Amino acid sequence: MVRMTGLLFAAFVILSAALVFLSRLSSPRWLVYAADRDNGIADIFILDTARRMMINLTETPETGEDTPSVSADGTQIAFSRTIPGAMQICVQTLGAGERCFEPAGRWDSDPHWSPDGAQIVFTTPGQTNLAELVLLKPESGEEIRLAVGQDNTTNPDWSPDGERIVAVNASPLGSHIIVIQVLDGQITHLNEGVSGQHVFPVWSPDGRQIAYLHDGFRLALMNADGTGTRFLTGEDEHAYFPSWSPDGRQIVFQANPGGTDWELYIFDLASGDVRAITDNRALDERPAWSPDGRQIAFRSDRNGDINLYLYDVAAGTTRQVTDGLWFYHPPVWPGQGSHY
């Protein structure tokens, strides 16, 4: 059952009738996220940010859902669901229903749609209980294991052309970035041998560069072949979770320079300028740039509770779009997936 909640709950009858037409999240006003109920179990929600209308997509009392990913065309939402003894990947096709893929005792999580919406890559424990990547074709249920035997492989992100997946390959000696060719599984190791923990890689919109965290906390860029490393932040700024602007000219990220408050910053790649877009004694984190480039979604506890906010890039203004009734997980837009 799909139910409506939030500030417009009194208009439930009208809004539930309108759900018949909700078969695609085609407008940039839609956000998707997980939120914990009072019992600590999370559901997947869709938020109409223009009307502050929340749609509970799952509402399963005995299971919890998390890490949503929205297909680029806005018609499908993949997510992980915790069931007794396992975690499975499920796909909700808007207006058509839900399908889950049996994990056979595995703990599958962190799904990410391919740009064409035909495949999902997700993380699962391998035969040695170290994380592996699996490629899933939802239409047939076929699975293909990727990066077999490559220690812990996590944080997958699709290239814009859908031909490559960048990920993190971790070992007791450190971690580095790898690129996997989807067609044949060939692996290219980037920055291997460079000491430190190199994590959270994200493709640029043109597929020519990769933003990542160098040694775990320093925002950096490199070319898709691993050359030309460029540091965007200093060693003491503790940057996390980069998100590209759709035109590839800027990157938003969270940081706490000097170990103070977590704020959001935008780095302009052409000029090298960095500007703060939040400034308060609070936790502002997990920014996600909208597909049309006009807004940045993030979460913050600036009013005492964790809520979701939107930053208007042109106007420089911020508005709260949730009401503090639940614990809100990081938001994603169509074409994006959660990173943990």
Q: Please give the number of β-strands.
A: 29
The CATH topology assignment of one domain is Neuraminidase
Q: Helicity level, as a percent range?
A: under 10%
- What is the mean pLDDT? 85
Order of helices and strands: EHEEEEEEEEEEEEEEEEEEEEEEEEEEEE
Q: Specify the overall morphology.
A: globular
Annotated CATH homologous superfamily of one domain: TolB, C-terminal domain
Which regions contain 5 or more consecutive residues with pLDDT less than 50? 1-20
Structural commentary:
The protein has 340 residues and is mostly beta strands. It has a domain at 1-146: TolB, C-terminal domain (Neuraminidase, 6 Propeller), CATH 2.120.10.30. Helix content is 2%, strand content 48%. It has a five-stranded antiparallel β-sheet, with helices on one face. Strand 18 and strand 19 (218-223) form a beta hairpin. The model is unreliable at 1-20 (pLDDT under 50).
Features:
340 residues, mainly beta, Neuraminidase, five-stranded antiparallel β-sheet, four-stranded antiparallel β-sheet, 1 helix, 2% helix, disordered N terminus
Can you summarize this structure?
The protein has one helix at 12-18; strands at 3-6, 30-36, 42-48, 53-56, 64-70, 76-83, 86-93, 97-101, 109-113, 120-125, 131-137, 142-146, 152-158, 164-171, 174-181, 187-190, 199-203, 209-214, 218-223, 230-231, 239-244, 250-255, 263-268, 274-276, 284-289, 295-300, 307-312, 317-320, 327-328. The chain has 340 residues and is mainly beta. The chain has a domain at 1-146: 6 Propeller (Neuraminidase).
